Amino acid sequence: MDTCNDSRRTRKKPYLKHEERFTIQKLLQKKTTVSKIAEILGRCERTIYREKKRGSVRYLKSDLTEALEYNADFAQDRAYENGTAKGPAEKIGGNSKQLMFMADMLKGNKWSPDTLIMHLDGHGWPGFCTHLCTKTLYSYIYQGYLDDYAFTIKDLPAKGLRHVSMII
To answer: Which is nearest to 39 in space by CA: 75, 79, 4, 15?
Structure first.
């Protein structure tokens, strides 16, 4: 009985590894059936069918006829590319003018990101359509988005460290 569509079952192997893709390639070259490949790898047949479809490459043979064949390297590269495209896009995106303005305001006034956001919320965001919250601005600083504009973690008022005073 095939349990591929059983939604109660947790996925134990969510992604195919590079070695598994090479195994699929070798077995397909030996004309092994998809059901046998699925059994060998301990995967669902649908997984193998989808992988075979996604990783197939059309190439030209020496007699100038086209052939469609599974290629493990191509499939791995494509899986990597698809994996990097996940997640939400940055709010600020490629708005370098806004990043430069924020870096200048933070550094020139020796403000914390929270002070800058409060200032902009109170006095208006000068021509910027993207409004950020304090947490997002801190995240951008920690991820290095403002490094190109000469503002790093070390330029923060607390130098990137939180000082906690203990009362004893």
So the answer is: 4
Per-residue pLDDT tens digits for 41-71: 999 999 999 999 999 999 898 998 998 999 9
Q: What is the pTM of this model?
A: 0.52
CB atoms within 10 A of CB 124: 9
pLDDT in tens, 119-156: 988 888 887 778 888 898 888 888 888 888 888 888 88
φ/ψ of 60, rounded to 5, equals: -100, 125
Tokens encoding 115? 């002070």
What tokens does 40 get?
């060998």
Residue 58 CA to its chain's centroid (Å)? 28
Tokens of 127: 């021509």
User: What is the per-residue DSSP string for the chain?
Assistant: ---TT-TTSPPS--S--HHHHHHHHHHHHTT--HHHHHHHHT--HHHHHHHHHHTEEEEE-TTS-EEEEE-HHHHHHHHHHHHHT-SPPPSSTT-HHHHHHHHHHHHHHT--HHHHHHHHHHH--TT-S----HHHHHHHHHHTTTGGGT--GGGSTTTT----PPP-
